[in-house]
Amino acid sequence: MTKHFYIKFFILVFLIFWLKVDLYAQTVLSASESVCAGELRSYRVEGFANSNIYWTVTGGVIINDGVSQGTSFNETTVISGLVYESVIQVQWSSAGSYVLTAREETPNSCVSGDLNLTVTVNALPDISSFGFTVSSLVCKNTSPSVIVTGLSPNTAYTIGFNDNGVSKLQNITTNASGDANLTVDIITSDATYNIESVAFNDGGTNCVANPAPSLLAKTALIDNVDPLVACVGNQTRSNDAGVCYYTASGTEFDLVSYSDNCTVASVTNDFNGGNSLNGAQFPKGTTTVAWTVTDNSGNTNTCSFDVIVSDNEDPVADVASLSDVVAQCSVSSLVAPTASDNCSAVTVTNDASLPINTQGTTVVTWTYKDAVGNSSTQTQNVVITDNTAPVADVASLSDVVAQCSVSSLVAPTASDNCSAVTVTNDASLPINTQGTTVVTWTYTDVVGNTSTQTQNVIVDDTTDPVLADLSDLSIDDCAQDETSIPQVKSFAGLDLPSGRYSDNCSSTFTVQYKIQLPDTSYANSYGSAALGASSAADPSGFEFPEGISTLYFRVLDQSGNISNEKTYTISVNHKPNPSEINY
């Protein structure tokens, strides 16, 4: 009895750390575990019915039914499911390595050996010197610098923090000074931050500081410093040649300097709305220009200066040389070129006698005169040369389509810039060939310029032949041999008479037939000869069985078009065969 008791005891007694049910199987055979300082854990051991379980612990306090029992405690096992067990809780204290011991004493005073569980109690993060800083002022659309301080050097942590209203967890590793940067979102307005939790990130217990840090929230303020800006002084210029304004070049009127403690978002002026005055045209007189610099936080600063433009120029042609006026036939009008004066309008005249019809080059002289009589001249060539071929009036010619042949064509038209157009083609009429024939049309003007265009002539017979009624060809006759079984009869002259079919184009046809026997089956199909028949076109010679057969005919023209189907019947009547004459 005693031997069996000890075997059962050592098989069933296990010391288990019991955090939650789904961890039971993972820890049932563990001889050690790791917890955090201050953590409350549950433990259980299985034994015999009514055994006493003696518990002792170092580094913690035993809790039973919510009551502290000190460092030792014993109780009788209770039934739980199919086993007897004792369950306690241990409130672990400071960091260190400790032992939890359980021993069983059965009702007959048999005592087991000690069952020990080594427990490593890990320290909580030390946050006694913990703090954090938030940079301010912060440039818009950037992230403030958030730094945690006062932690253990070169240590991995998980920091819980509030990133401007959003709770986040972030893994960090402190530097040799115990500091680390937190990554936060970019901001476009003032933002508030705070620390919510500090935990080791050791890949094991990851103990969390308890209580959590109690720190005041800190705010990052958006930049409110205006940019610095400097303009050029007042500027005096003469007008550009030929115009009543001055054109700024390069950066001469741009800002001398500008800067900002953050980022400059835009640089604009109120003259052309751009960030440079290069190419801007300043009119005669005084123009005041204001520059505005805006940073990315919306802070602005301005400066201004005057541009003074004076007038002292005569009219000047707007282009150095005039393009030739080129025409095919004649020039009846000329587009007046332009000239510019520094300030006044310009009158433009020429010496041409219009219209100009003469082939070749005519030189026209243009005169530009301003309001006070200053003038300049410029020449222009008028060149008359006809070198343009006629142009077809339509981009492509429609196909000419016929069933049998085309005997005439309608001439297309073309237009010429100067003269009438002669139209010819290379067709050989009539066109009878089935398919597509390409006809080339040639357009010629009076000076011999030509162009061509093609047209498709398509001869395509799509009309079916017509087969007339054949019912008058029906045959009613007796079988050929009364002694033959079955009785049959063949006929000559069953080929289809040519006068029974016609076509719009073809004079040559293919005749086809098929024979439907009295039992409704067919002796052949269209295009094949029936057994014994003369050919696939002539059923003569076929032996028709007794009864009514139907002979179907159709014809095909040269283009393969198939006619309507017509029929007539062949009736073979039974021929009597007397057996004998009695005498």
UniProtKB/TrEMBL annotation:
Keywords linked to the UniProt accession: Repeat
Keyword Nucleotidyltransferase part of the UniProt annotation: no
Pfam families: HYR
PROSITE patterns linked to this entry: HYR
InterPro entries, alphabetized: HYR_dom (IPR003410)
Keyword Repeat tagged: yes
Residue ranges occupied by any HYR domain in the UniProt entry: 222-311
Protein name per the record: HYR domain-containing protein
